[in-house]
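Why run this: before we spend reagent on co-expression, it is cheaper to look at a predicted model of the complex and decide which construct boundaries make sense. The entries below are exactly what would go into the expression plan.
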Amino acid sequence: MDETHSPPLALDQLPGHLIRRLHQIAVGIFLDESRQFDLTPVQFAALDAICARPGLDQIGLSGAIAFDRTTIGGVVERLEAKGLIDRRVGQADRRTRELYITEQGRQLLDAITPAVLRTQERILYPLAPEERRQVLILLDKLVSQNNPFSRSPIKGD
Amino acid sequence: MDETHSPPLALDQLPGHLIRRLHQIAVGIFLDESRQFDLTPVQFAALDAICARPGLDQIGLSGAIAFDRTTIGGVVERLEAKGLIDRRVGQADRRTRELYITEQGRQLLDAITPAVLRTQERILYPLAPEERRQVLILLDKLVSQNNPFSRSPIKGD
DNA sequence: ATATAATTGACAGTATGCTGATTAATTTGA
DNA sequence: TCAAATTAATCAGCATACTGTCAATTATAT
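The model came back. Tokens follow.
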């Protein structure tokens, strides 16, 4: 027998594949729930972080929500084009762009928040209450302890 | 008091955000482990599925590993350009393109498999053995039961 | 048999998410 | 002080991941 080839891996049992699928599902539910607001999950995350920390620059925003710093450029550009944030040249450091949420941005954030909360409930809906607590603890453990290996590691406050 | 605005949500406690972060981390580990093979996670998944089911068409491949059918087009195009798969016009249905792994593709799949397995171990490394079993069970439950709501639901065999 | 439906794959367009290079501004160090 | 290193943002380029649309092909229904 010249059987030099290993059998294909069963993808649907690999953690990486399960994680990719779950992410795909979570994004799908988010877009379904917030269809009327024309905001992507990443745009929501950025808007939420800018609201929480006004005057943040783009690198700071990357660190706060773990985006690649190049990706953030396009995201804030689109948020600015929609009138949801302002971008001002930094006072202390003119290389930076300080980010501020606009009144319109605040109103959208308020309006979309219930949809975002419904999204989280729908994602976890298949699990029993105790399992939901469990999975959040395990996901948090995986994310925080693998954080150093991530491409865009979270910076602590 | 005219406090009409709710406080920003704590992103790092939202399931959707944790899932996005974990996916980002998993992809990063995959690319790190398989750097020398020049294959992305999605390309690996497609190659693995084509190996397991030779003659599959592109829609069938989408259904097997939950890709959008448009996304698959570019993926198989790049796999074909690298000489890892063949694409032939379907005999029974000339609309389809039947996908076959090449000998070169099989060899790459063999070579990359240990790296893919190491990737899975690194993803789960922060967890104790019992927690690893738990999280896989919970992820599988979330994925399979939310599958109908996904944009690219898995088709059963 | 033939008009209509549905299906496969392709294409255009948009939005992440990354690499690597470049520019402008600031900081460091000899 | 002034050249060198560093940093913030941008740009070009590539690969997912989705929407919609379209042409070619097949299935259906009268």
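The CA atoms of residues 65 and 154 of chain A lie 7 Å apart. Chain A touches chain B through 67 residues (CB under 8 Å). Bring this page to Monday's planning discussion.
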